[in-house]
Amino acid sequence: MLVISPAHANERITLPADGLGNLIGAAGTDGYGEACFKLLKQVLGVDHWALFQYPGSTSISCLASASATKVAEAQVNIDKFVGRCHNFDPSLLALRRQCLQQPCLVTMEIDDIENAEYRQCFEATNVRERLSYVTRSADDLYQLNIYRCRRRRTFSQAERRMFVTLGGLILATTLQHEAHRRTMSGAAPRMTLATIEQRLAALPEGLSARECEVCARAVAGITIEGTALDLDIRKTSVITYRQRAYQKLGVSSLNQMVAMLHNMQPGRPAQRHLRRRPGDSPRHRTLHS
Fold first, then answer.
1. SS3 call for 149
2. Which residues lie closer than 8 Å to 119 by C-beta, 6 or more apart?
3. What's the pTM?
4. How far is Cα 168 from Cα 179, in angstroms, rounded to an integer?
5. C or N terminus of the chain, fewer CB within 10 Å?
6. Could you say which DSSP state residue 90 is in?
7. How do residues 21-73 score in pLDDT, each as one tens digit?
8. Quick check: 76 and 124 in contact, CB under 8 A?
């Protein structure tokens, strides 16, 4: 049965030697997801974990994840959840109705899932139970999920209380992790999906509505499969729309497109690219659309 309760972080827990130090040290690196998983596995005996961020009402991204078993299937599940299945998460549906004001703990079992596609995600990785620590930070919603497979017992009340304390700690390090990664990459703060689509639509090269939708999801970190699920189109169509957009924009990689969008000033259209035609001199370039 789906259970939602206030999350009071007042449980004293004993962490493994160097557990917290390793976690903080991994912030900003590619090993952060594994460092979190190692700590969660040692303390709570989990099989999978994932942290999702909801920057806006229509966008979602996975900040970190790791698995002990069925790693490939778990990654496919994350793509599906980001792409579409989060719309069928019964805990999120319930929390939206409650208008979340404080951190909460959600206990959910596979039998609580009515949607067949989302239920299949649990079946593919043999998951029987999921605990979620859900909270807000600034304007963003965060959902930290841990999962146990069928071969394990369900989470005890003591473990649930420990998870609340550990969840708050992990979320704090995740915010540091994201800040470090943005600093190292020189990237601007994360934009919402709606903002990315607006900036793409404002480009003078004239991207189609579908090209804007596909490229916005690529910029937001959504995979090709996740984009296909979200927009209900084929994966080959996602690739085609992205390639067309690259050609129109005169870029050859996602990083170049991201840089183009971050260099735009909000509320102002991007400047057209200067391109040389055969015969143009370096000092006399013409502006072509």
1. strand
2. 110, 113
3. 0.68
4. 17
5. N
6. H
7. 788 888 888 889 999 999 999 999 999 999 999 886 567 889 899 999 999 99
8. yes
